[in-house]
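seq as requested:
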Amino acid sequence: MMKYSRQREMIYEQVMNFPIHPTADEVYYALKDENPNLSIGTVYRNLNLLSDMGRLMKINIANGKDRYDGRTDLHYHMTCTNCGRVFDVELDFEEEITKKILSNEGHTITGVTLNLSGICRSCSEHLAADSKEAI
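struct tokens:
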């Protein structure tokens, strides 16, 4: 069992209370003012440890910084190509796709990682409003 760490718990709580899936840098800057002795290395180490322990989900972003999610149940993510925020996406297809791959290809799928990219609702609304103003 892992020894309790006040800093680890503070980092965990910051991820849990963050409005989006934060990067290690975002967690660090959110905590730094009230915790001047906190180092970026401590944040990275603890986020990775919390992820390894299963308390947080580490989201690997292609061509971007890893993000962290306090929600550890099976779900997927979409990265907005406009603002860079990462959103939870609810999809219910894992069982269907793994059965299809097994029957078609003979492969047994043991996990699915899916990161979608697109434009979030907020950015879509702003882009639509901007295009109307330009006319």
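The CA atoms of residues 76 and 113 lie 7 Å apart.
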